[in-house]
Amino acid sequence: MRLKNRFFWIAAFIAFFLDQLTKYWVMQTFSLGQTLPLIPGIFHFTYVTNTGAAFSLLSGKVEWLRWLSLGVSLVLIAIAAFGPILSLWDQLGYGLILGGAIGNGIDRFVLGYVVDFLDFRLINFAVFNMADSFITIGIVCLLIASVQNTPTGSRRWR
Fold this sequence. Notes:
Elements: H1 6-29, E1 35-39, E2 43-50, H2 62-82, H3 88-110, E3 114-120, H4 130-148
Antiparallel strand pairs: 1-2, 2-3
Helix pairs in contact: 1-3, 2-3, 3-4
């Protein structure tokens, strides 16, 4: 039997595994609040926790966010398992989003917060993690898929 939407499952597993591996490494290597400048003033590893969503939105709403992560994960699994064969870009996009959602969801269920450590100081950006990165990359993949799926007849440019 052949696995349906194989790249979805591969992308989800890799994203989840890398997210959890890097968070484990950070928790074992750094003290909370500790920073390691890789490129001073530009990019640091900084161990922080986040009880909210991206950019600390909904801070303290862990209970609601953990169930949202679970719901999103279940919907994506259902799409891949029971829906049609998806395009490669759709499989990668949905898979990366699933891997990130499960990674952050597990943090919320087990720890009560999300571990963040990627700190781009050059642009004063919020500290984030690999799961957040994979979710963002997944959205870009879905945008690429939607552009590729646009019928040529409806395009106004050529």
